[in-house]
Amino acid sequence: MQGSTRELLYIGTQTPDPIFNNRDLRDNDWAVRRTELDGAFDLLLHEVSPAVILLDCSHLDLSTDFDLVSEYLSYCISCSEAHTVVPILKDPSSRQVLSCIQQGASDILLLPVDPRNLLVVVESAWKARELLRASHNYRQQLEATNRELQESLQVLRQDQLAGRQVQLRMLPKTPQHFHDYTIAHHIVPSLYLSGDFVGYHTLMDRYLTFYFADVSGHGASSAFVTVLLRFMLNKMIRNHVIRRDEANLSQAPSGLAESLNRQFLATGLDKHMTFFAGSIDMKRHVMRYVTCAQMPAPILVSDGKGTVLPGKGKPIGLFDDASWQVEEVVLPRHFSLCMFSDGVLDYMEGESMAAKQQALHHAVEAEAGKVNGDFLQGVVSRLGLDHVQEAPDDISVLTVSREL
Predict the structure, then answer these.
(1) Which helix (DSSP H) or strand (DSSP E) does residue 289 occupy?
(2) In terms of Cα–Cα distance, which of 339, 396, 394, 399 is closest to 195?
């Protein structure tokens, strides 16, 4: 038996031949050790880790000493690493057998021990032990993995919150007033970070420029692209201002979409965006704009009547040969312009896309004419966007209005 890998520990006062001289056990790599059912077995249980324990209580009278059997069994199970204990009993009742099983015994051997059945019982108990051990190890691995995931999730949440603060600081103050014009925005991210972004500036105290972008996807990757977009646009604007390039500013946003398209494709980020950019000459009250697959189309309201701004174009970042048409519109003395990202359509209820767009149209018309940012707040409240808890996609609203 030397060199056997599995140890069978017999605890009892007998020296049963069926166990110690069992050829089947030897042939199947079982090494049998023995200890008395006294204080010595306590020490041995703490020194070794037997694969199976045979707890021989056959010398006890079960009618009077079953509690002692339960006590031995409970102690062996508590000391055994995998709780694989098989009591040997003499003439137990069915209730006593059931009690042993309920306490955690893997099986029961009855006197006289059948040598042919011994190996079956021991192997069955050992397999149960291995299953318990595997289950225990698997559970520990799952618990460790779960702890790691929770820790990673907490770190990610903190990173997202920090990123959210950075992104909020990059957005312009809202609302802002430039001469007769008021511009404001409202963004509801679907996660901590948003793929929607807006920006607006006044240049040379004459041109009110603004843009409205919706980067594909949402979350951190799309938010990082908005940072890149802001950097690209600020660089262009800064160059115009430094050179006091009023001739080109008067033609803005000509060439803007093409320039952004080239830069997006050059980055290889596999991201694209819908985009709307406008430039209002606050002296002539003319707006030039370019629309790049903006959906839904911007709504312009004047004298209580809303119209969809004409213009269409491909999204930015998909086609290297794309070009865009710059549109121009003379602005009324009183008007309200409103833009939405397509996330609002996912949020709204409605039987069809056309019905949702019609609802947007009515909301904008109903709130048009309000001043000092109340136009934006009115649209947001009317559509319930100020109480959104979970948005399926980023939702953004940008408004521009003129009231004398």
Answers:
(1) strand 286-292
(2) 394
Tokens representing residue 282 in the block: 């606050």
Peptide bond connecting 310 to the previous residue in cis, omega within 30 degrees of 0: no
353-367 and 374-382 helices, crossing angle to 10° = 140
- State pLDDT tens for residues 24-51: 888 888 888 888 877 667 767 777 778 8
* Gap between the Cα atoms of 203 and 213, Å rounded: 20
CB contact set of 240 (below 8 Å; sequence gap of 6+): 203, 248, 249, 252
**CB-count exposure of residue 51 (10 Å: 0-12, 13-18, 19+):** buried
**Amino acid in the structure at residue 40:** A
**What is the distance, to the nearest Å, from the Cα of residue 306 to the centroid of all Cα atoms in its chain?**
40
The pTM for the full model equals: 0.69
d(CA 390, CA 379): 19
Distance of CA 259 to the CA centre of its chain: 35
